[in-house]
Amino acid sequence: MSDSIETYHTIVSDDSLVTAVWHNTGEGGTAPDIDCVVKFKSEDGKLHEEHRPLLRLAHPNDDYSHHEVQKIVSLDDEYGNRSYVFFLSAKVGSNEYAHDIVAFEIAGDSLRPLYNYTIK
User: Fold this and answer.
1) Sign (positive/negative) of CA torsion 42, 107, 40, 116?
2) Which 8-state DSSP code applies to residue 113?
3) Distances (CA, A) of 88 to 36, 42, 71, 74
4) Which residues lie closer than 8 Å to 46 by C-beta, 6 or more apart?
5) What superkingdom does the record give (predicted)?
């Protein structure tokens, strides 16, 4: 039996090609330290992993280490490109949550952030 109190969470995209796995490595509360790994398949069918914190890929100058992935949705645009939208939340108070949305596409063997992504 392990002494670890870390709890792992897994969210899979609706097309099952992208998976986010994270666990709380901190003390919890309003600013836990979340370690997130995103696993995805590239166009050639190979499995890849991004070990950098998820939101730092899109927002490298901001601290998003406390955000958790709630849902991953794939969207195809009119040109046949597929984007992955990550819906995130973070506890900022006893009963308050902040929400954020980031979008990525699979480009080669990495995730490329899509900036100025809006959902209407």
Assistant:
1) negative
2) E
3) 12, 23, 7, 15
4) 109
5) Bacteria
CA dist 5 → 22, 25, 26, 39, 105 (Å): 13, 9, 10, 23, 33
Phi, psi of 62 (to 5 degrees): -115, 155
pLDDT digits 0-9 by tens, 61-119: 666 666 778 888 988 888 777 888 888 887 777 778 878 888 888 887 888 888 766 66
| 3-state class (DSSP) for residue 103 | strand
- 0.85 exceeded by the pTM? no
- Residue whose tokens read 């954020």: 100
State pLDDT tens for residues 31-57: 455 567 788 888 788 898 876 556 666
